[in-house]
Amino acid sequence: MTVRVDTAKPQIGVPDHRVGVWDHVRLLGGLWAHELAVQDYQDLLDRGWRRSGMFLYKPCMKETCCPPYTIRLKVDAFVATKDQIRVRRRLQRYLDGTYSGPQTVGELHEEKNDVVERETGVPSDSIMASSSDRKTSNVEQGAAGGHGLSRSDVVEADLSDEEKLIESVKFAIKTSITKCVEKGVLPQSLEVPEVVVKPISQKVKDKLKVESRADFTSNVAFPLAATVKRLKKIEIQDAGKSNLQQGSILVLTPQEIAENLVIVLSELFLPGVAIVTASNGYLNFLLSDVKMSSPKYLVGEKQVNQSVHVTTSEQLLELMKPAAPGFTRKLEIRMARSSFDAEEFALYKKYQIAVHNDRPEGVRESHYKQFLVDTPLVFIPPANNGTTPSCGYGSFHQQYRVDGKLVAVGVIDILPHCLSSKYLFWDPDFAFLSLGKYSALQEIEWVQKEQRLCPTFQYYYLGFYIHSCPKMRYKAAYYPSELLCPERYRWVSYEVARPLLDKQSYVCLSDFGTSTSASEGSSIPGKTRGDAEAAARDDITGRQGNSGEVYEASDEPVNWEERRHVAADDGAQSALDRLGLVGDISVFLAGSVIPFKQLRASTTMPRQHLDKIATSLRIYLHNVGPRVATRMAYAVYEGQD
């Protein structure tokens, strides 16, 4: 099934409205696009669509457990958080030669005010993710509180490499529990239980799925959950005695606690550990090819006599060395149109294996091209009249290079109103620089600069946001974000949406308010602001058909079942009068393209078939919007229901 969409002539499209499955999320529609005008894709984004290579898809949000909402940021309103500012400063210090990355868990613990929030690089248009975003934090420190680190937190010289690693992981887990307490995820009165970390036997490993591979595991989340439950019970009893409100302690399941711990653990530089995951309440650790050899490896002390040998990357030690006095590094960001680059693919493969635990043989060049290189977007070269950004419109790759070395690649679409972030992959050796977060800040800044050249270029789209998916919540940290209402396609402030989504996963957000920018519509390059506003009104309030009747394109949620049949006593002309925009949609039938109102007036097709086609066209119109619907032909086959 193919669709061609451009501005030159009527197009032939075959929208597939059958429900499918993509990454565990049901699809309302899918299209294969070979040519797609950037304005049309902008309009589709604003109707909840995304692309993966040449494939366009729209999730069926009502029928999935984890509805993905389109999320965006108006860049001129962006306010950076302290943590986002720290990420920028950290990278600048690295370039200046004054920062070389954390050397141990202990060093990072001492730098707790400069914590790295590591983003894992889940595709912005991917609809699957794992792990957690609840706030993380720290327990009491020092002997005075009774929870100071004991001598058992120090890895002694006579331990084996495996024992050293286990002790290091234990300390990291205690650190993560401490941080969760500091930020309120776990109660302040919590006593840290004994942390047990055990190796997983080869017999058990052989039974694990690829995505569940691990070398060590800890059940610490279970005693933590039991303790939290007990403290909650005490809180309720105390509240009853004193007539005070109770509710400060949040009861979490072992899995939820494990996911919170994973968030903190993923921020720590753990020598020898490649991946940390939460599964059924257990913390699982997958080792990298990292070996520790040292006469004394002291975790928790800043001055450490140690050496870390990383066999998977001979350059890592060099990268982590403090720079010589006066030494600086150079960061370059290069933008090029989407095309295959062998160096980029090599980095992508390294990233997928290290970060997403893919098998080397599973990372194929053909899949990479289909996912991140192929694009249907028709390139529009830059103009000097304020209608385009400096690079023009289309699909691009942004390369991040440090002293010429490729360290990250951002895959983006530049559209009439936005930079749409599609995917980012980075060198795992540079994880300590939080390149995922840094690149997002850089993309926001780029849009801000380009907006001066092209005033209609105002937004940063971060793909899909799933409220129940903790690893996606980082997207809402780019304040003030907006979510797209899945019913009326209006933009709603995240601050309005968040408490609603806390209660239920699917919400008609515009029932509760819209953002100040919600009425801003898409505009075609070269059109005036007045044209854009008129087009926006068309999208929001409907557009008038030849009959003079307004079709409610997005004002109200549409109950299509109520419209499935035309009343038996309605005449053909009466039915035509109600078609509105539906009558203007071109239909591809038996090798010909014809407006539906003309087809309905002239065809010998049974009326019940025409009524069913009309209903399908209304659904289609609601899902793709008025402009795209009238610029594409809807394919109909004889006997189609």
UniProtKB/TrEMBL annotation:
Entry keyword annotation includes Transferase: yes
Record SUPFAM superfamilies: Acyl-CoA N-acyltransferases (Nat) (SSF55729)
Chain residue ranges for the region called Disordered: 102-148, 515-557
Top-tier EC class: transferase
Key words of the record: Acyltransferase, Transferase, Ubl conjugation pathway
GO biological process: one example: arginyl-tRNA aminoacylation
Alphabetized GO MF terms: arginine-tRNA ligase activity; arginyl-tRNA--protein transferase activity; ATP binding
Biased composition regions of type Basic and acidic residues, renumbered to the chain: 107-120, 528-541
A GO cellular-component term linked to this record: cytoplasm
Domain Arginyl tRNA synthetase N-terminal: 167-287
PANTHER family: ARGININE-TRNA-PROTEIN TRANSFERASE 1, ARGINYL-TRNA--PROTEIN TRANSFERASE 1
Function comment: Involved in the post-translational conjugation of arginine to the N-terminal aspartate or glutamate of a protein. This arginylation is required for degradation of the protein via the ubiquitin pathway.
Name by which UniProt lists this protein: Arginyl-tRNA--protein transferase
Phylogenetic classification of the source organism: Eukaryota, Viridiplantae, Streptophyta, Embryophyta, Marchantiophyta
